Amino acid sequence: MNALSGFMDMNAVWLILMIVLAIVEAVVPGLISIWFALGAFAALIATLVGAPVWLQVVWFFVVSLAALALTRPLAKKYINAKVQPTNADMMIGRECIATERIDNLAGTGAAVIDGKEWTARMESDDIKAEVGDKLTVLRIEGVKIIVKPAK
Which of 4, 12, 34, 92 falls between 20 and 30 A from 107, CA-CA? Predict the structure, then answer.
């Protein structure tokens, strides 16, 4: 009877863990816990066939990590893969004019594009730009444009 109660206890543990992880997956955006829910399901199956607790735990980790390793790259590729361009993205590759000396080491710099002034930083710390220099926008990082001298 003692072994049977241990069997029922581990059934409940894996079942509850699987349900909780599935609920977390449903509530939280992005793939967070689905792999561990699959591992809990595998451990539940191991319990049902009478596997010892240490083997159930091993199955939980092996199946969870295998599912994670096999599906995570595909999931990252196809989920949230659509990038929505913004108006700011249209500035990449455009020319701007330095309105303040741009010096990465001093933490200074500003440039204007289409009448809008942006905090600006050079692509490299060893390059500086003076007021009036023409620059090309390489990318946007937060509220800063990263620029290089225009050709």
Answer: 92
